[in-house]
Amino acid sequence: MARADSEVIEHVAGGGTLGPDDTLSPGYKGELMRLMAVFVDSELAGAAGFVPFINSAPGLKQRSIAARIVSEKFRHAEQGLSLMEPFGINSELYVRSHCWWSRLDRSLDLGARRVGSDKRLNVFHYPLEGWTDAVVLNLLMGTASAVQIDELSRSSYRPMAEVMGAIAAREKTHAEWGQEGLRQEIDRLRDHATPQVNVDYWFPRVAATFGRHGVTDQSQQYLKYGLRQATSGELLNRWLADIGPRLKGLGLTQPPVPTA
Known about the structure:
mainly alpha, 260 residues, globular, single chain
């Protein structure tokens, strides 16, 4: 028999956690599955969209790193799906259920509203244009993912928290690789103009992955169930504190933060 929502909310509010042997309330289970689907779908779509650009890298070392990032993102999606399987998800059918490499028109501005049939973050609906574009997105979204996934490592659902802690560490490494890759690309191009154009394009789209600022209806649900501990605005500010110095160190300018 499912637990009452009020019982679960009281339990997590007191610092309690839940595991695979606990009975979850329908509300808690629904928000947990939504959160895990967003993670899995984003990893699948992000990896699939990056695949065609591996051979665009200027050297073998860069291609090897790019291939490793793709491989690890697919592995992260696999780990996320393993968390969903106890809830009746068939991993093989799930992976085949969407075209993960599909993209929309680059000129669109989707903001934070949900589009498409899967639950990928909107940033993964936009197509990449070349290697420089790819390494810029890797740096911006890599640092954002590290913040977002690290937050899930403090989730009230223990199995997810345990898995996400290790994944967050790998995402931080991906961001470091992205930063070094962008530094090399700036040196190769011998100018900052093209990378800055790419930063200007991707920055607001990555910022939008944090959702609307403050406590929205959706983030309130995550907070209520202890699936997240911080608001969207707090997570955004963590990212800004990280990405600002990185861009400055590369001689790039941080664009204005879009208003909610």
